[in-house]
Amino acid sequence: MATLRNLRSKSTILQQLRNYCSSPSSILTGDSKTILTSKEKTRAALSLLKSETNPEKIIDICRAAALTPESRLDRIAFSVSISKLAKSNYYEGIRVFLEELKNRPDLRNERFVSHSIVLYGQAGMSQNAITTFEQMEQMGIRRTVKSFNSLLFSCILAKKYDEVKRIFTDFPTMYKIEPDIDSYNTVIKAFCEAGESISGYSIIAEMDRKRCKPNATTFANLIAGFYKEEKFDDVGKVLKSMEEHGMKPGLSMYNVRIESLCKLGRSFEAKALLDGMLERDMKPNTKTYTSLIHGFCKEGKFEDAKNLFKNMVNRGCKPNSDCYFTLIYFLCQGGDYETALQISKQSIEKNWVPNFTTMKSLVEGLVTVSKVDEAKELVGLVKEKFPKHADLWKETEEKLSN
């Protein structure tokens, strides 16, 4: 009976996917006459996907946009769609949709198959990813290290770390594939995410035997793993090994170390690394400062976070939206509504507006410190940027008027 119900479920999904929409272009434009370029189709799709929750409609939006992995925007749309479908437990729909795409003439190539393997991993469907890889020859598509690396990565996304080890050990011989630097780095990342960073040493030893020179990513993955496990002696050993391989820590390595320390609640140690960078005339970037600001905020050290933000701007390093949003959110949590207001205005000027929950918290906080006029002005600014969401502010505005 269970099998029969399962078959009926699959049949229903297939029928829904085939018949849901008779006019794909109207999904994106609202009419069937407007002609869009491929980029305009993707932008329209992404806009619709933000609020869509119906699984069939999500798939129809993707189908109407004729997405391909060639474009970065299209890859984002694919990722957003698969995440939403997986959240709805629409796994059979994901499988049917991706299998359908493989029959499109423009997608019968290794690049799309590799991307579909990653999407299966993102959905937690690692077995489907493995099956897709195994069936490539039947599809007339040659396997290379590119699709092999996609399979390893998909298993990391699905958190199937044992599968990463098995595939890395067995598949190169089975399918006559020579692992490359990305293969080794992905396996090291898998060990580190599984809490087995120590196994990364054996991978580096194998790389040396195969004359595959480690790169910055190799050591960065390993160091992030040892920090996560709080094995600080091993961090030092990896840094020494890095030097022995003729490499010096660059900005990316400092950023990994700073972010790792901040995650452990050791932001002052991370700040010492920043000071060391500046002494060496090494220029930090936005990621460096954002990690530190987030770290200090999480530890409740708001003055340090604000000072870092000022120093960042004074040094000519431009904050990104994440940096603004992080600081505004935590300043509201800490009750510093006036500073949060100043920073939110700077952010809004750049067309970066924090989410509704954060802005509502700021508006209500301003009222508690007798800044009602400022609160009203802020609501007006946000409504001007997002007129479609004006109704969300109705209750708040009524309270401000009383």
TrEMBL record:
NCBIfam families: PPR (TIGR00756). Belongs to the PPR family. P subfamily. Pfam families: PPR (PF01535), PPR_2 (PF13041). This is Pentatricopeptide repeat-containing protein. The keyword Nucleus does not apply. Gene3D superfamilies: Tetratricopeptide repeat domain (1.25.40.10). It comes from the Eukaryota. PPR repeats lie at residues 180-214, 215-249, 250-284, 285-319, 320-354. Keywords: Repeat. SUPFAM superfamilies: TPR-like. InterPro entries: PPR-containing_protein, PPR_rpt, TPR-like_helical_dom_sf.
